[in-house]
Amino acid sequence: MKCLKRLWDHLQAQVLIASHGARRELQGEMQRPVHAQSVPVEPTAKEVSEHNMAHQPYAAWCGFVWLTKLCKILILNVLRPVVAILA
C-alpha cells in the first residue's frame, strides 16, 4: 500500500511539474522584447551626390529608391497575376 501511495504522489508531482513548465514556456512566448523603429540618419551633401549617381546601395532617405521598390512590388504582386488571368 505504501508503494502505491508513493507512486500516486510521484505521478501528481510529475503532472504539477509538467503544467508549471508549460505555463512558463507559454508566458515566455507571449512576452517578446520590444524593438524600437530605427531613425534614419540625415546624409551629408557629399553622400547624397554620390548616391544620386546610381542610387545604389539602398538608402532609406532616397525617394527614388522608395519609388522603384514600390514599382517592383506592384509589378510582382498586382500586375503579374492580372496578366496571368488575362492570358
The number of helical runs is 3
Q: Roughly what fraction of the amino acids lie in strands? A: under 5%
Low-confidence stretches: none
Q: What is the tally of beta strands?
A: 0
Number of domains: 2
Sheet with the most strands, sense and barrel status: none
Average of per-residue pLDDT values:
81
What's the arrangement of secondary structure elements?
Layout: H1 2-30, H2 45-54, H3 63-86
Tell me what the structure shows:
The longest helix is centred in the N-terminal third of the chain and has 29 residues, at 2-30. The protein contains three helices and no strands. It has two domains: 1-30; 43-87, no CATH class. It is elongated. The chain is mainly alpha-helical. 72% of the residues lie in helices and 0% in strands.
In short:
By secondary structure, this protein is mostly helical.
Based on the model shown, name its key terms.
2 domains; elongated; mainly alpha; 87 residues
